[in-house]
Write a structure and sequence with these properties.
The chain is an alpha+beta fold and about 150 residues long. It has a single domain (about 10-150), classed as Nonspecific Lipid-transfer Protein, Chain A. The chain has eight helices and five strands, in the order H-H-H-E-E-E-E-H-H-E-H-H-H. A five-stranded mixed sheet has the order 3-2-1-4-5.
Length: about 150
């Protein structure tokens, strides 16, 4: 299944970039906890414990900041200097999350930017590569599918 590439208006991205960081950070942390609960229980993310991680969605202006500990992912307020930052478009994050695109391919084509501690980035990538994703992560519904369910 191919995902349509959505284009967000630059004006909308400028507005979204000014919104508080905690609400989207909280939502992302909860989604990660749901999707990766078995890996959290096994302590697969131990090397990333208490590191400040930022996710920036370049085309929407959306940002999420979180950390991880033995209990899972936890939203944090925006930090001056995260230990690790990932930057990509919403479309590219969707491709990564559903494993339709390899992070190395996106990185080398400059569609995935990584800032900060590169050793942490490799640990995160290798840990995520070794995980079995839940079914709902492998085939997320498209917006049109969701609207059809509400009709």
């Amino acid at each position: 299944m191919n995902f349509p590439q959505l284009r967000f208006p630059a004006a909308a991205a400028r507005v979204i970039a000014r919104l508080p960081v905690l609400p989207p950070s909280f939502v992302l942390a909860r989604l990660l906890n749901l999707a990766l609960k078995h890996a959290i229980a096994r302590q697969d993310f131990q090397p990333l414990h208490h590191k400040r991680i930022a996710i920036r969605v370049s085309d929407t202006g959306l940002q999420a900041h979180f950390t991880v500990d033995e209990k899972g992912f936890r939203a944090i307020s925006k930090t001056a200097q995260p230990d690790l930052t990932f930057v990509a478009t919403a479309h590219d994050y969707t491709l990564l999350a559903t494993r339709r695109e390899d992070p190395d391919a996106l990185f080398f084509s400059r569609r995935l930017l990584i800032e900060g501690d590169t050793e942490l980035a490799l640990i995160a990538k290798n840990t995520l590569d070794g995980l079995e994703l839940p079914e709902w992560m492998q085939r997320p519904p498209l917006p049109g599918d969701l609207l059809a369910k509400f009709r």
